[in-house]
């Protein structure tokens, strides 16, 4: 039974208080200066890779409006100009015109060479950013304001790929060390000025920004993995914007301060197809048959989620209309086999989901052990196939606005995020077909067919589609509520 924050026993309440003590220093207190208040933001996950844009940390840089890409996506997922003003395709090559008059935060100018430098570093990194899984990409400066991007095969989604925050364009100085350092190297309305490990970050308004001048003088970020502490920061007035308010805390907050947005994020149980109990397809089917997702939505998420019909959820409404029944292996009968399920604490609901699954699978005849840690301490084991199963809250169109990239990353034989260790020729064929189709109805149909191919293996059991719950203090104006989790604080965001 969940205990509301207002009813926490003294030790738990004290622990939350300790987590919040000094959450925002006096330097970034949000006090008004001559031009308004700095925005205090409580983020869920600390940086995993020193804020390198080649990792998932790129989405923090994007949400703080400090790093920008050549292209951005509109609400429909269509490509729109950003650092590039226009583009055209000729076979395997796309030509992009670079916007004139843009200055990096270090004072250097945005040029075609700088763009090529960023794209080449991303394309040749190991591992590659997810958006480039299965893509061989080369970039070349054709003129001071013109860049060509060429792929090994014709790729209709190059503009969408270049919208990924993992392909942000940074100043040359960012790449001079062994790791990519985004401090003072972006082009956005806010300049990243300081990063204090996994504790905090600071950004100041960039006065030479090429677009609309930011309304707030700066941003002070604190990384607060504990969901209760994040919610308490909003309640106490210590934070202006709180990312990912846990479902358990949403009900005890002022409902006028929270916004609930359906998002393309699926809570999925990945089953290890390479070794262990779930190498047997009938045991994977037994696990899938044992899961009662509706009870998890009602019990853990208090109804603030949607039961999954597939990997692609209601944030992609076209998927349901294209989906057909999936042919699956008949479920076997478990006879006391022991399985270990891994998950992480960063998303407050996941340990509760794990506990619920443990009960459901044990009722079906499995013996279940749980391994729950912070994500930074468990990701490598998950990718190495250490667990029999892993529970992951996974964004399905985070990178390109197109689910084909996510499906390839997670389920292709050579996918960089293949937690299920899946190697299935039929799935690979369907994924390649989806990746080759042009944007539009044909590509959407192929993506749903690829989803069906994955589901037929029971390598992944989608349970529910999450909704993002964001907390904004009453005096916050213009905070972004982005289902793709690319925007949070924009040039239009400020505190009254």
From TrEMBL:
The record's listing under CDD domains reads: PBP2_NikA_DppA_OppA_like_3
The superkingdom of the source organism is Bacteria
* Gene3D superfamilies in alphabetical order: Dipeptide-binding Protein, Domain 3, Periplasmic binding protein-like II
Q: Which InterPro entries match?
A: Peptide/Ni-bd, SBP_5, SBP_5_dom
Looking at the record, the residues that make up the Solute-binding protein family domain are 80-416
**Which named protein is this?**
ABC transporter substrate-binding protein
């Amino acid at each position: 039974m969940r205990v509301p924050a207002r009813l926490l026993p003294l030790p738990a309440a004290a622990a939350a208080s300790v987590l919040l003590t000094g959450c925002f220093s006096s330097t970034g207190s949000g006090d008004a200066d001559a031009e308004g208040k700095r925005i205090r933001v409580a983020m869920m996950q600390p940086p995993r890779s020193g804020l390198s844009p080649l990792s998932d940390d790129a989405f923090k840089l994007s949400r703080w409006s400090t790093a920008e890409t050549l292209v951005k996506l509109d609400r429909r997922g269509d490509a729109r100009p950003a650092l590039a003003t226009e583009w055209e395709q000729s076979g395997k090559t796309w030509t992009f015109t670079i916007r004139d008059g843009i200055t990096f935060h270090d004072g250097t100018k945005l040029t075609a060479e700088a763009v090529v430098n960023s794209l080449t570093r991303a394309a040749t990194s190991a591992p590659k950013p997810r958006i480039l899984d299965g893509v061989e990409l080369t970039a070349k400066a054709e003129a001071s304001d013109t860049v060509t991007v060429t792929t090994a095969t014709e790729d209709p989604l190059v503009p969408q790929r270049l919208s990924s925050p993992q392909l942000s364009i940074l100043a040359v100085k960012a790449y001079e060390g062994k790791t990519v350092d985004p401090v003072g190297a972006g082009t956005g309305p806010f300049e990243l000025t300081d990063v204090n490990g996994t504790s905090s970050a600071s950004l100041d308004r960039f006065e030479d920004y090429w677009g609309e001048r930011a309304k707030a003088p700066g941003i002070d970020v604190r990384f607060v993995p504990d969901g209760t502490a994040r919610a308490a920061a909003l309640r106490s007035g210590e934070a202006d914007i709180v990312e990912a308010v846990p479902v358990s805390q949403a009900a005890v907050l002022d409902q006028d301060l929270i916004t609930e947005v359906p998002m393309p994020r699926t809570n999925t149980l990945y089953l290890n197809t390479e070794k262990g109990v779930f190498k047997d397809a009938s045991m994977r089917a037994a696990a899938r048959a044992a899961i009662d997702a509706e009870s998890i939505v009602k019990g853990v998420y208090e109804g603030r989620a949607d039961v999954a019909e597939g990997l692609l959820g209601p944030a992609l409404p076209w998927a349901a209309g294209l989906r057909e029944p999936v042919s699956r292996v008949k479920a076997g009968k478990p006879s006391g086999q022991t399985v270990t399920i891994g998950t992480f604490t960063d998303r407050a609901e996941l340990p509760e989901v794990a506990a619920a699954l443990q009960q459901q699978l044990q009722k079906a005849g499995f013996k279940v052990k749980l391994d729950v840690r912070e994500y930074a301490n468990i990701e490598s084991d998950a990718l190495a196939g250490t667990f029999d199963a892993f529970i992951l809250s996974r964004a399905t169109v985070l990178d390109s606005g197109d689910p084909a990239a996510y499906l390839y990353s997670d389920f292709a034989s050579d996918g960089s995020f293949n937690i299920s260790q899946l190697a299935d020729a039929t799935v690979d064929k369907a994924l390649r077909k989806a990746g080759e189709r042009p944007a539009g109805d044909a590509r959407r149909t192929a993506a749903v067919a690829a989803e069906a191919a994955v589901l037929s293996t029971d390598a992944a059991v989608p349970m529910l589609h999450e909704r993002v719950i964001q907390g904004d203090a009453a005096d916050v104006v213009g905070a972004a509520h982005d289902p793709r989790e690319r925007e949070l604080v924009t040039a239009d965001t400020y505190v009254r």
